[in-house]
Design goal:
The complex is a heterodimer of chains A (146) and B (112).
Chain A lengths: L2 H6 L4 E7 L2 H11 L10 H23 L5 E8 L4 E7 L26 H8 L1 E8 L2 E8 L4
Antiparallel strand pairs in A: 1-2, 2-3, 3-5, 4-5
Helix pairs in contact in A: 2-3, 3-4
Chain B lengths: L2 E6 L2 E6 L3 E2 L4 H11 L6 E5 L5 E2 L1 H14 L4 E5 L3 H9 L7 E3 L2 H6 L4
Parallel strand pairs in B: 2-4, 3-5, 4-6, 6-7
Antiparallel strand pairs in B: 1-2
Chain lengths: 146, 112
C-alpha cells in the first residue's frame, strides 16, 4: 500500500522531499522531528528513529547520488506496529540489487566506516528494497518502544 | 565546529559544543580535533555531554581521531548522551574506548 493509499485509508501520514546532500539531510531531520508523527515518539524511540533515518538518508546521499545530487522522497505513517517508513531516490541501484548485509566491522580493527547498515539492520524491522522504473525504494518499520 | 579545550593536570579536556556530530560535520570535526589535540599531553578526554546525536560518520570521525593520537596519547570519552551511547554500544565500539559516565569521573579516574 502506498503512502497515498494509507492517507486515503485515514492513517496519519506525511511525506517530505529533501535535496540529496548531507546538509539538507541534517536540516530535514531537524524539521521532521519537530512535527508529527516523529515529534510524538518517546525519547528512546526518537533516538532509534533518528539513527536509522540519518543512516538511510546519508547512504543515499553518499552512494546512490554521489556527487550528482538529486531528490529524496520520504513518507512516514504511524501504524499499529510502529512507524512505517518509505524512502525513494532516483540514484544508482543497490549493488547486486539488494540491501547490504551490514556485517559490522570487528571493533579491534578500529574501522572508520562500515557501521551504517549494521545500525539500520539492528534497529529497523521488516526492511525491504525494490527498484522500479529507475526509482530505489526502501521500506522499513521503526519500533515505538525500545 | 565548536570545540573548547583546557588542560586539567596531565589531561587535555576537549568539550564538543555542538548538538550533532553527523555526516554533514564529521570531516570538520575530525580536522578541528586534530588541531586542538596537538597539545602534547598523555591523556585526552573528549566530553560529549552536549552532543545529542552522532551517526556512523561521526563515529568514524571519533575513531579516526583515536588512531591519529595513538600510540603516544589515548583518547577517552565522557558524558555520552543516550542516543550517542546507543551507537557506541550497537557497534561494540564501547569496548575500544575508555568511556567515563561524566567528565568529573574521567578526571578522577587515574589512567590504568
Amino acid at each position: 500500500m502506498s503512502a497515498n493509499d494509507r492517507q486515503a485509508a485515514g492513517a496519519t501520514g506525511v511525506c517530505y522531499c529533501l535535496d540529496g546532500s548531507a546538509v539538507a539531510v541534517r536540516e530535514g531531520l531537524s524539521h521532521m522531528f519537530d512535527a508529527p508523527p516523529l515529534s510524538g515518539l518517546s525519547a528512546t524511540a526518537r533516538g532509534t528513529a533518528e539513527i536509522v533515518l540519518a543512516e538511510v538518508l546519508n547512504n543515499i546521499v553518499e552512494h546512490a547520488y554521489g556527487d550528482d545530487g538529486g531528490t529524496i522522497r520520504l513518507c512516514l505513517a504511524l501504524g499499529d506496529e510502529g512507524l512505517l517508513c518509505r524512502i525513494e531516490d532516483r540514484g544508482m541501484p543497490m549493488p547486486q540489487g539488494k540491501l547490504p548485509p551490514g556485517t559490522p566491522p570487528d571493533p579491534a580493527s578500529a574501522a572508520e566506516g562500515g557501521y551504517g547498515w549494521h545500525l539500520i539492520r539492528v534497529l529497523a524491522r521488516n526492511l525491504g528494497y525494490c527498484r522500479v522504473a529507475g526509482v530505489n525504494c526502501i521500506t522499513f518499520l521503526l519500533p515505538l518502544e525500545g | 565546529m565548536a570545540l573548547k579545550s583546557e588542560i586539567r593536570g596531565d589531561v587535555l579536556v576537549i568539550r564538543a559544543e555542538q548538538a550533532r556530530i553527523d555526516a554533514a560535520g564529521a570531516i570538520r570535526f575530525k580536522e578541528a580535533m586534530r588541531d586542538v589535540a596537538a597539545t602534547p599531553v598523555p591523556r585526552v578526554i573528549l566530553d560529549l555531554s552536549q552532543v545529542s546525536f552522532l551517526d556512523s560518520s561521526g563515529l568514524g570521525a571519533v575513531v579516526a581521531v583515536m588512531k591519529h593520537l595513538a600510540p603516544a596519547r589515548r583518547l577517552e570519552l565522557a558524558g555520552l548522551t543516550p542516543t550517542v551511547e546507543k551507537v557506541f554500544r550497537l557497534t561494540r565500539m564501547d569496548s575500544v574506548f575508555t568511556i567515563h559516565p561524566s567528565l568529573d569521573q574521567g578526571l578522577g579516574h587515574v589512567g590504568e
